[in-house]
Amino acid sequence: MAAAGDIDVYTAVNIQHIESLNDVVAQITHVRVRETVPDSVFDRADAIELIDLTPDDLIQRLKEGKVYVSRQAERALEHYFSPGNLTALRELALRRTADRVDEQLLNHMQANAIAGPGPPASASWSVSARIRARQASCATPSGWPIGCMRPGPRSASRRGAACN
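-> structure tokens emitted (164 positions)
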């Protein structure tokens, strides 16, 4: 990622530190991550590389002391890095990366006037003249937290759709 002053910055970030995913991560892990990175920083990066490990591989690395010192690793394994939590965090990382790839593909198709699929299936459709879809996000009166509503507008935004 190029920062102001033409300085190249390389860093690693875990999915639980992406700000817009904070509520989802807290719901999954029962831990609110305090150190977050604004989505805009992630979105401005020139390149994103996903480093993917299976939950079993990460757990093994924790046990071997390759991630944290032994006592910190033990505590992490007991509370945060359970196989279920790691599977859910892995899915979030894969989805966030897939969203980025989708955006890059759409930009490429638009820049090169490449036709693509779109609703309705029988319509002639090109990316440069694409039909804007609509997406509905619904809330129930059961008192769901606002974090449950965030994926709808994010998903609509990624697809250039109106979200009602």
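Helices lie at 22-29, 39-44, 55-63, 70-79, 83-111, 151-158.
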